[in-house]
C-alpha cells in the first residue's frame, strides 16, 4: 500500500494583551498566507500543505503558527492554542460577516453563539469516496482515543469543568456532531447527509459535523475529534495515529466492528472527561481501562501501518512523552495552581 498523504487544520483564538477575546479576526487574515476565517470573529484557522511524512507536518504546523503569531502581533493581538477560552464568555463575540455563517446563526441560535471552541482536524488521503466510507466504518471505535491524547480545554468561563476536554461537550450541541453508525456504502453515507439537510439539522454538507467524515473539498477522510493542541508536536502525534488508523482500515477486508453508537458516545465522553489521566473505553474489550493500556492497544492495532510509514518510533515516543509530562489540560491546570489565570493564558499562548 502506498503511504497516504496527510494535512492538518488548526483553529486558534485571538486575544488582546490582557487575554480578553478580540473580535477583529479580519484584521489578521490578510496579513499572512494560509489563514482562514471561522464562524466567530475571535477565531482563525490555519491549514498545512499536503505532506508525505510527519517531519513535513511538523515543519508546516510550526511555520503556520509562526506566521499567524507575526500577523496577530501587527495588530496587537496574541494567539491562544486552547480548545476553549479559560475565562471569557463566548456569547458577545459576533458571528463572522459571511452569508453562510449568518444563516447558521439564524437557524441554530444559541448553539452558534456558544460554540467558540477550537479543534484540530486531520485529513488523510484515500483512493476515492467509496474507500473513504470503508475507512469511516472501521476507525469509529478508535477515534475517541485521539481526543484523549489531545485534551486541552479544561476551563470554561472561569471555571474548572472537571473535564480534560470541555470543547467536545460544547461542540456536540450541534445536531450532527459526534460518532456515527456503520454506513456500509457510499450511497448510505450520502443519503443520510441529504436527510440531515432536508430535516434542517444541517444547512449543507459542510455542517455534517461527524467525528470523522468525508471531506467535501479534498479526496480525504477528515478526522475531526481532537482539541487544538497546545504544542505542535502533539498535533503531529495525532496526525500520525490518524493516518495509521486510515491505513489499517484500508487494508482490512473483514466486516467493520459492530460497535453501538451509544458505546462510542460513552467512549467519547470518557476521553473528554479524563484525557490521559483516567480510564478510557477499550475499543476491543469495551470496558474501562487505564489510558496507558488503551493507548498501547491502539499502537498494537496500527503497528504495521506505523512501520510502513516509518512512524512507529516517533509515535511511541510521542505517546510516552504525553503520558510522562501530561496533556494540554494538565499543563493548564498546573499553570493555574502556580500562577493563576494569567499563567494559564501564558501557558497556551503560541510563540
Structure notes:
- The chain has 351 residues and is α+β, with helices and mostly antiparallel strands.
- The chain has a domain at 110-336: 2-Layer Sandwich (Creatine Kinase, Chain A, domain 2).
- It is 46% helix and 14% strand.
- It is built from 13 helices and eleven strands.
- Strands 1, 2, 3, 4, 5, 8 and 9 form a seven-stranded antiparallel β-sheet that branches. Strands 6-7 form a two-stranded antiparallel sheet.
- The radius of gyration is 19 Å and the shape is globular.
- It starts with 5 loop residues before the first strand and ends with a helix.
- The mean pLDDT is 97.
Topology, element by element:
Blueprint: E1 6-15, H1 26-29, E2 35-37, E3 43-47, H2 54-73, E4 78-80, H3 99-108, H4 110-114, E5 119-125, H5 129-139, H6 143-150, E6 155-156, E7 159-160, H7 167-171, H8 186-198, E8 212-214, E9 220-227, H9 232-250, H10 261-274, E10 279-281, E11 288-290, H11 291-309, H12 312-325, H13 328-347
Antiparallel strand pairs: 1-3, 1-4, 1-5, 2-3, 5-9, 6-7, 8-9, 10-11
Helix content: 40-55%
Distance between the termini: 38 Å
Number of helices: 13
CATH class category name of one domain: Alpha Beta
What structural class should be given to the helix and strand makeup?
alpha+beta
List keywords for this structure.
alpha+beta, Creatine Kinase, Chain A, domain 2, seven-stranded antiparallel β-sheet
